[in-house]
Amino acid sequence: MGLRIFQVDAFTDKPFAGNPAAVCVLPEPRDAAWMQSVAQEMNLSETAFLHRQADAYNLRWFTPAIEVDLCGHATLASAHVLWEAGYLKPDQPARFSTRSGLLTAERKGGWIELDFPAEREERVTAPSDLGRALGVTPTYVGKNRFDYLVEVASEETVRNLKPDLALLGDIPARGFIVTSLASTQGFDFVSRFFAPRAGINEDPVTGSTHCCLGPFWGTRLKKNEFVAYQASARGGVVRVRVSGDRVVLGGQAVTVLRGELA
Questions:
Q1: Which of 14, 78, 210, 258 gets the highest tally of CB atoms within 10 A of its CB?
Q2: Is 155 among the residues known to form the active site?
Q3: Are 212 and 194 in contact (CB under 8 A)?
Q4: DSSP for residue 97
Q5: What pTM does this model have?
Q6: pLDDT interval class at 44 (50, 70, 90)
């Protein structure tokens, strides 16, 4: 019998949008080299591996190139699979033991809410090639333990970005969040995320970046609840609620593939 594996589009309510993640449910732990090989084979921005332990599921995330410490969309996809495939009862919260501590997920109507750590940024001096690599003039540059956060003047600027990915990949960081206030009705802010050093030129919808974006825009807009749009080609909607040192991320998910690893 092969290992069950699913492909789920996260932060969307329809197939072939949002951010695709693979979810592999394991009967027991596997070594990192094997998981990295599976992630390379799946060739998605993230593949999640989980196995049951006590009252939680151990959860690890791999891009095609590296293991990462925090991933929102593959956690959303994992929770969706646990409920849909019957590993958890519909009203049972999902608990994940991860490299970023305990993460939880709950079903709220047709949405899933993830309880994640806030990843606040601090203002920094921009790397010398950052503006040139992104092709923009930043209005603000900050950095947290993972990424640079770059504010630009408008949603139009965010949507029209055509970064020099080779140059961007020379700057030491997991990735680069580019954001602005939204001009599209119904959204508070927009963003895009580029992570060439992690093997992801552009991530379609990134939960973990909203752990930074929520507190960032909360300070500027003097509020703690947002509807955000990640303006990649696939696009996706993220509900964000900031509560102290935690950020609640709300999203939807759709399974598009079920199979077995031979």
A1: 210
A2: no
A3: no
A4: E
A5: 0.94
A6: very high
